[in-house]
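Margin note from the TA: students keep mixing up input and output lines. Inputs are the sequences; the output is the structure of the whole complex. Example:
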Amino acid sequence: MPSLPPLLVKPVDLAPLWLVERVARHLFSGVLKAHPDLFERLGAYRETCYGFSPVDLPLHFTVVPAMKTLAVSRGAPPLVDARIEGPLVLLLGLLEGRCDADALFFSRDLSVTGDMEAMLALRNALDDSAIDLPRELGALAGPFSPLVAGTARYIRGKALEGRDATWN
Amino acid sequence: MELICPAGTPAAFREAVEAGADAVYCGFRDETNARNFPGLNFSREELRQSIALARRKKVQTFVALNTFMRAGDEALWYSAADDAVAMGADALILADFGLMAYVAEKYPQQRLHVSVQASASNPEAIRFLVEAFGAKRVVLPRVLTVQDIARLTRQIDCEVEVFAFGGLCVMAEGRCSLSSYATGKSPNMNGVCSPASHVRYRQDGADLVSELGAYTINRFGPGEASGYPTLCKGRFEIGDVEGYAFEDPVSLDVIDEIDALRAAGVSALKIEGRQRGKAYVAEVVSSLKKALGASPGERAALVARLRAMSEGQRTTTGAYDKRWR
Amino acid sequence: MATTGKPALSLGPVYFLWDGPKWRDFYFRIADEAAVEHVTLGETVCSKRQHFSEPHVAEVVERLEAAGKRVTLSTLAMVTLPRESRHVRDLIADSLHPVEANDLSALGLLKGRPHSIGPLVNVYNAATARTLAARGAENICLPPELPAGSIRQMLEAMPDFSFEVFAFGRMPLAISARCAHARSKGLTKDNCQFVCGEEPDGLPLRTLDRQSFLVLNGVQTMSNSCVVLVDDLAPLVEAGLSRVRLSPQDCDMVKVASLYRRVLDGRIDGEEAIADLAKVYPGVRFSNGFLHRQEGAAWVSRGRNAAMGRD
């Protein structure tokens, strides 16, 4: 199972919550702006409170697409309608439609609790959206855009390397 | 043989076209198709654009309207058929006799394919569909051996399409109410089997329990690979014995039978998986496209790559092999 | 058939493998004692079983007709082998009795001849029913999965047509090329040794949490619960329902028929019949969820039904 290298985990662990939250929120609102079709596909599930818990980070992300809100928390996972847990790179891969959720779930790398249908709707909607996180991340970095995007792509490639279920 | 590929979203549609599909099949975002899952399928506008894209790439589009019309709400199915015809769908994939009659009468020039959900498993059944509705192609239910198929194609004047890869219905398709018995939602009426809305995973001590509606479908020990609680692939108890009563959590893979199917007179191979992601579609379509043109020896490497993507990483040739029964 | 007055009772084919004498004696008793007007019979589930009942068909039909029952012969639910195709062809070509189609091969062959459609053919709407009626179908037993709303809609759309509902018995839910019944005993379909005959009322399948769920009947999978619509029929009868089907279980079907008849005739009420049915077919849960647009396994009592409105 791929997991984040400890060198990457450490700074996240130490970073103040507001900073992580700010970066994540920027990314999230960028994605929402760039992919309005995502909303339509989600239908009624845009009101769902989704939780994302990377098992290799001491953080939980909570998102309600309709409210365009994103919160980051530490400690016990917050109460949500549907939660997905797994290694961060797989969660991000899933977000980009780069990994097949079915294959991952069957191998128990990911686990879903709560409203399964809501999670399925999100998975399907994301799959159509062609989100490219390194590009979105790069877009936030202004003049450093190519550098950030390139580095992120490199990390993504490394993290997903060796998995049968990768496509690049 | 043509390669018929699934698309649950416009993105998957594009991937299928790029990966070498001869035809892509898809459905509208409502109960008119048998993969009526949340977040999946096509709006009218998305289908229009997808058909245009396919046309440019000389790829056909088949529109699946393969649920059974709910009495009183037939207009939903009729208008879906009207729209698909107007958009230039190359074929409609139908299961309901009433809808077939409507399309055959109103659009006699429209190519009509019989969905696997109609369960046409013998020459007389197929002749009936050709005679009554002018069917041009039948997708065979997954109840026949390769030998059965070869015998069948010789006796009919209709193209035959078979499932080659992906999910495996253990029961004759379109004739299974197991899901609605447990959840009230059925493939025939609602376009869903073992719907996610009724799925729950529960931790019970060290076990992970998967439930569908009020029923336990499986229990997984610590570390054991879990699966989606598809009813016919659950673990049950008969007498004092626990086991997979109908089928293990495997998926269908008949790539090793490609030459036999071609020799049996099969016109098209179908890939299941409109509910799978675009990454899956791209991978499976391109591998199968290569496999179709490869020698049996070269196929092995392609097959190994594909098998990693199957449910529970195990596959079966299902009913295509007599011993499966 | 005009739908005036009270609906007729009909007995569906025995879906289970009963040995020849048991099968024969069952029908003899039906002929002599049961308050049914229509009897549909013949092996429907598995072609391998046909030799069990076949030697007795002639005498059973004769006895039933002598008793004034109208006999219909059932065709196989799933036809994949040449032998099975031939059997359906011969049955349709030679039969002096009406035939009930249970798969598409029979539908094709029966064109232009009066026939019935069994509950294993997918008729979900009036458009389909009309298409089949135009080809000669005179009676359609609707699939157990249909909700009351759909049934009523079809009754209204075709007021002069004979519709039948599956109103008693374990429901046929699925059929497969694979025999789960043989498999559960370490055998395959091709070498099954007719082990499904060991369970004349189906082999119970429970969940890992010991919930009763389904029963296996050879290649067919049925509900563990027994559908009982005896207390749900009145609105359908009012809407023009012609026939009420009872599917044979290994219990006293003469009593079952008598209870349904008395309810249809207004001599006892549904709740009383349900209490008596529980004695006739003990240890089996009842269900009517499909009719009420719920999961098929559910039981909706009339009190709750009334509160929920027309459906």
